[in-house]
Inverse folding.
C-alpha cells in the first residue's frame, strides 16, 4: 500500500465490480481461449485479453445505450476480425451470456462483509442489471445503491456513472468528501473519478504482472489516495482504522 488516507473520515465506498470484485479476466479468457484453440491461434490468455481490451472499450464508446451482453458479442467479433479468425454467432453468444459464470476474487465476499460494517457500499459498474444481480449472488454484497451502464445509458470512462453517483450520494445523505471510490481499472474508473473530484483507491489486482490485460491503458490524468493489492488489504486497513 502507498499513499496517505484517513479511512475514519469515509462514510461510503463506491465500487467498480468487474476487475475489482469479480475476476472478469478469468471469465473472458475462459471463452476466448477455447475459441482461439479451435481457430488454431497460438495466443496466450494475456495476448487474447490485450487484443480484446481495445475492442470492448471502442464498442462501449460507440454504442453507449447497448446492453452489456451485446457489447461483449460485438467486441468478440471485432477481436476475431483483428486476429484474422472468424467468431461465429454461437461463440459470440457464449461470451455474451458468460457474465454469470465469471468468478468472484476469493477475497471479495468476506472483505465486502467487513467493509459493510464500517461503510455504506455502492456499486458503479459497466454492466446490465441482470448481469450484476447474477454476480452479486457470488458476492453476497449489502449495497445501498447499484448504478449500472444500463441505468445511465453509457459506459465508463464516460462521466455518466459519476454524475449518477453524485446524485445518489445526496439521496443517501453522504457528502462527496465522505466518499471513497474503490477500483482496479485506472482507465475505466480512476481517470473519471479524478475528473469528478472523487477520491479513489487503487485495488491493484494485476500486481506482479506487466501490461494492462483486459483494460486499456489510462487515457487521462490518474490520481488515487492509496494502493492495495487486494480488497482484503483495504478491509484490513479499515478494520485497523476503526479499532
Amino acid at each position: 500500500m502507498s499513499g496517505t488516507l484517513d479511512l475514519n473520515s469515509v462514510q461510503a465506498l463506491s465500487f467498480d465490480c468487474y476487475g475489482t470484485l469479480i475476476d472478469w479476466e478469468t471469465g473472458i479468457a475462459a471463452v476466448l481461449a477455447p475459441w482461439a484453440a479451435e481457430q488454431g491461434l497460438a495466443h496466450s490468455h494475456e495476448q487474447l485479453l490485450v487484443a480484446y481490451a481495445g475492442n470492448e472499450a471502442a464498442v462501449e464508446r460507440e454504442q453507449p445505450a447497448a446492453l452489456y451482453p451485446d457489447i461483449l458479442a460485438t467486441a468478440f467479433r471485432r477481436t476475431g476480425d483483428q486476429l484474422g479468425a472468424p467468431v461465429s454467432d454461437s461463440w459470440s453468444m457464449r461470451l455474451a451470456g458468460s457474465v454469470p459464470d465469471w468468478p468472484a476474487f476469493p477475497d471479495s465476499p468476506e472483505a465486502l462483509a467487513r467493509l459493510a460494517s464500517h461503510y455504506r457500499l455502492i456499486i458503479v459498474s459497466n454492466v446490465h442489471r441482470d448481469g450484476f444481480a447474477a454476480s452479486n449472488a457470488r458476492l453476497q454484497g449489502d449495497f445501498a445503491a447499484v448504478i449500472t451502464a444500463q441505468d445511465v445509458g453509457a459506459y465508463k470512462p464516460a462521466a455518466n456513472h459519476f454524475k449518477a453517483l453524485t446524485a445518489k450520494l445526496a439521496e443517501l445523505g453522504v457528502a462527496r468528501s465522505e466518499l471513497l471510490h474503490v477500483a482496479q481499472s485506472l482507465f475505466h474508473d480512476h481517470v473519471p473519478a479524478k475528473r469528478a473530484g472523487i477520491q479513489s483507491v487503487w485495488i491493484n489486482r494485476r500486481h506482479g504482472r506487466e501490461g494492462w490485460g483486459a483494460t486499456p491503458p489510462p487515457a487521462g490524468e490518474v490520481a488515487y489516495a492509496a494502493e492495495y493489492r487486494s480488497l482484503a488489504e483495504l478491509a484490513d486497513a479499515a478494520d485497523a482504522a476503526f479499532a
Q: What stands out?
A: The chain has two domains: 7-23+103-242, 24-101.
